[in-house]
Design goal:
Four Helix Bundle (Hemerythrin (Met), subunit A); about 5% strand; mainly alpha; two-stranded antiparallel ribbon; about 170 residues
Length: about 170
Amino acid sequence: MEDLNYPIGKYVPQPFSDDLLKERLIAIMFLPKELENTIQDLDEYQIETPYRPDGWTVKQLIHHIADSHMNAFLRFKLGLTEDNPTIKPYLQDAWANLNDSKIVPVNVSITLVHALHAKWGALLNGITSADLERTVFHPEQKKEITLWHMLGTYAWHGKHHVAHITALKERMKW
């Protein structure tokens, strides 16, 4: 079951480097198109299929990415403008079971991810290593998290969920 949960492996923090920064910025910028391409040929039945046993449907997963990355964008803005702000956690499983994640067509969240990542990319354009050393405080984890760590987490997060959908398509031979 490990491969179904973490098809690209778990996120592993890495020290700052200019090359890794470029890689992460590219991941943020290209996620919307990659996500759109991954689901473009899926029909309604396929969109309503869980990506793994006891997992969310592809529809819920797409809406989750939009929800998660909206939170990430706001966390970045807080981290860039305030000194070690406390971020607001949220219950992702509960959010995935709200009506918007169940009945709204996925193209709404795909469009949202496109717009959000355009803004996020602009926010990150020209970000410095000093900016990325800034921190936010995560009350659930009870620790400070650098923006560098968050950037890595969310660059990984998008790839992680695209891989969930890709793996489902391969298993189902879609």
